[in-house]
Design goal:
The complex is a heterodimer of chains A (about 250) and B (about 325). Chain A is mainly α and about 250 residues long. Chain A is about 75% helix and about 0% strand. In chain A, helix 6 packs across helix 8. The longest helix of chain A is centred in the C-terminal third of the chain and has 32 residues. The longest helix of chain B has 18 residues. The complex binds adenosine-5'-triphosphate (ATP) and magnesium ion.
């Protein structure tokens, strides 16, 4: 297989990230110019690798929850019996989006205490809308001859959903998940204001001690993760779409 | 046998199919013709209950088609949808295998059936089976649509303008394929088309629809000879009528004793083809040969012209 340049760049960045997380001290010279007064160069209040994994875990749990609920909701309101709930569910999910995550955190803390829980709630609510909207678009814009054929060959409602509608809507649904993950990767840093273990800790520590190197380390890890996950999911969407002939081969 | 009895479909105030009754004999081809919006598709879709009628009954082999749940009924009735409707995310082989899978056939039987059908439509199973629908030409997609409808060996096949999008050459090839398949499996076929020529060529019986009404339901010869209304007459096309009439019977039926010079025509060719050949080659008579290639007599311009005139009512 011939690797194209972007693929090499991607692998390079991934390797760099892994090495940095495993051996951050190797990178001390790179970040040294950003610190003053002999302040520590590399984040030293915990393991970067550990924080990154916890950060990813928080985002994964919240996004998985949001994905399940949003897709279930989209399926429900696109069935004949659920159509009347369409406007209601739309506005509910919209509320989740218009509420700033900081406000959700502030409201959730008194209810569930400090730590990961309020962060999960905020990320979950925040992740719902893109997935729901996309799933709805995907499920309501299927080619009519294909859905008709699914009925014509004798599929039950459930079979049509599982064998035809969801697979065909998958690229659009995946695009929603991708948006949601990317937003949540960044938003999760705020969780550290309520003591969730995320990469936000590194950034906050940097801001408090006026240590630009810390801020940059936290920011870079989050940024690189977001770009790579975005990229990976895009590639998956393209693969599925191409197989279905929805994209031109090229 | 399909008995359609006083079937009516209304959408709100609009009556789309109005009190239609007709009986389709087993192992025959019935063609529904009519202008766009005349209710052909709707009538057909009430047979497999993709559309529920407002009033009336449809019976298949004596049994009301509402006895089974809709999805089970549809697994037994082949349906080639208007505009093939193949599943874009499934391969050609998987598309054809859909109904057998829903019916729980084992893999060996399904695979064998898929190969059989692909070969039947002159598509190599090894080459075309693993392809996706977008990797086929329009004509190939159409054939896969029909193959999918035939996969579970249904007794009844509904076809909605199956040849609409095909060029004339592929189209007549597809028509011949359909006739061969119908003979081979003895399938009862109901086919919708805009094209009177196609209806006359394929149909044992033709149902002419206009504005939701069934204007005439008769054999092609009867419709040509005695169109029930002016609309049917227009559809038949008065200018083409004698030629269409000749196209209904084989040259073998018009054979007269005697011999003739020049290239022979097979007895199975239509009388229209025979007349065309006579006119084109400027001969007064043509020799006719049977399947074995043996001369069985001749056809003459005079004889054919007599046959092309309106039959006594
Ligand atoms: N679901 C529906 N709701 C309302 N009107 C409908 C519906 N389906 C069909 N119609 C109307 O019923 C009439 C007949 O439609 P139908 O599809 O049966 O026509 P057709 O003879 O198959 O036409 P074509 O040759 O263009 O396919 C049309 O006027 C159409 O607008
Ligand atoms: Mg139609």
């Amino acid at each position: 297989m011939k690797l194209r340049l972007p693929a090499i760049v991607r692998i390079g960045i991934l390797v760099l990230l892994v090495v940095f997380l495993a051996r951050p001290e190797w990178f001390e010279p790179v970040f040294r110019p950003l610190t003053q007064n002999n302040a520590p160069v590399i984040y030293n209040q915990g393991s970067l690798l550990n924080l990154t994994l916890l950060h990813l875990r928080t985002v994964a749990i919240a996004t998985a929850g949001a994905t399940i609920v949003a897709i279930a909701l989209a399926i429900l309101v696109t069935r004949p019996f659920g159509a009347e709930f369409l406007p209601l569910s739309r506005s509910l999910v919209n509320i989740g989006q218009t509420f700033p995550p900081v406000a959700v955190l502030a409201l959730a803390v008194p209810a569930v205490g400090f730590g990961e829980k309020p962060t999960l709630i905020a990320l979950f609510l925040y992740g719902l809308l893109p997935i729901f909207e996309n799933a709805l678009t995907g499920l309501t814009t299927l080619p009519p001859t294909v859905t008709d054929a699914a009925r014509g060959v004798g599929m039950t409602g459930w079979q049509r959903l599982v064998k035809v509608e969801l697979p065909l809507a998958m690229p659009v649904i995946l695009a929603g998940i991708r948006l949601s993950v990317t937003i949540n990767l960044a938003t999760a840093t705020i969780g550290s204001t309520v003591a969730a273990k995320t990469l936000g800790e590194v950034i906050i520590a940097g801001l408090q001690s006026n240590n630009l190197s810390f801020v940059l380390q936290g920011g870079l890890i989050v940024g690189v993760l977001a770009v790579m996950i975005y990229d990976g999911l895009s590639a998956m969407e393209r693969f599925i779409s191409r197989r279905m002939g929805l994209l031109q081969q090229g | 046998m399909i008995e359609i009895e006083n079937i009516t479909k209304r959408y709100g105030a609009a009556t789309v199919v109005n009190d239609v009754s007709l009986v389709v004999q087993p192992r025959t081809i019935t063609v529904i013709v009519g202008t766009s919006g005349s209710g052909k598709t709707t009538l057909m879709r009430m047979i497999n209950r993709l559309v529920e009628p407002t009033a009336g009954v449809i019976r298949l082999d004596g049994e009301d088609n509402r006895t089974l749940p809709g999805y089970e009924l549809r697994r037994r009735i082949g349906y080639a949808i208007q505009g093939h409707g193949l599943f874009p995310h499934r391969t050609v082989a998987q598309n054809i295998a859909v109904v057998p899978e829903l019916l729980g056939w084992d893999k060996a039987r399904t695979d064998a059936r898929v190969s059989e059908l692909l070969s039947l439509f002159q598509l190599d199973p090894e080459t075309f089976g693993p392809r996706y629908p977008h990797e086929l030409s329009g004509g190939q997609q159409q054939r896969i649509g029909v193959a999918r409808a035939l996969a579970a060996e249904p007794n009844v096949l509904l076809m909605d303008e199956p040849f609409g999008a095909l060029d004339p050459v592929i189209r007549s090839k597809a028509q011949e394929d359909l006739l061969a398949i119908q003979k081979r499996f003895g399938t009862t076929i109901i086919l919708v088309t805009h094209d009177m020529e196609e209806a006359i060529h394929l149909g044992h019986k033709i149902a002419v629809m206009d504005g939701g009404n069934l204007l005439q339901y008769a054999t092609p010869a009867e419709i040509l000879a005695n169109p029930a209304t002016d609309f049917v007459a227009t559809l038949v096309g008065t200018g083409d009528r004698p030629f269409r009439f000749l196209s209904l019977s084989p040259a073998g039926d018009a054979v007269e004793p005697g011999t003739a010079e020049g290239e022979a025509i097979p007895a199975s060719a239509t009388q229209r083809d025979a007349l065309a050949e006579l006119l084109w080659s400027g001969r007064p008579a043509l020799p006719v040969v049977n399947e074995a290639g043996k001369a069985i007599g001749r056809v003459t311009v005079d004889g054919l012209v007599k046959r092309a005139s309106r039959p006594a009512a």
